[in-house]
Design a protein that fits this description.
The protein has 3 helices and 5 strands, in the order H-H-E-E-E-E-E-H. By secondary structure, it is an alpha+beta fold. A 5-stranded antiparallel beta sheet has the order 4-3-2-1-5, with no helix packed on it.
């Protein structure tokens, strides 16, 4: 009877430990590849003109700003300007020249008149 108890305990322990280790195994590589995180879209930089308290005008692309500094991109070169040196900061709202539509010409009037 004691041997049956020992045998049953060992079998139960093996089954229990086997179930625990199977539950803790990692997911398959296929499932991990399906879960991808979306990266944020790159933010377009805006044109900005900074006027310093000394009167200098600095134009570039706005990168970011914090409580103490404004960061600009000047022709590929990064520049930091302390806010206590800034008098004004103006964002330009103009579209780039390539993005502007061509001016419309009034072709309907010339097409309506027959040649003389």
């Amino acid at each position: 009877m004691k041997q049956l108890w020992i045998f049953t305990s060992i079998v139960f322990g093996v089954i229990l430990l086997g179930g625990l280790t199977a539950g803790q195994s990692r997911t398959s590589q296929r499932n991990r590849a399906e879960r991808t995180t979306a990266s944020p879209a790159p933010v377009a930089k805006h044109s900005v003109i900074v006027k310093t308290k000394k009167g200098a005008l600095i134009g570039g692309l706005f990168v970011r700003a914090d409580a103490e500094t404004v960061y600009l991109d000047l022709k590929g070169e990064s520049r930091a300007i302390k806010l206590n040196e800034v008098e004004s900061l103006s964002f330009l709202t103009e579209e780039p020249q390539a993005a502007k539509p061509a001016p419309a010409t009034n072709q309907t009037q010339s097409a309506a008149q027959p040649p003389a």
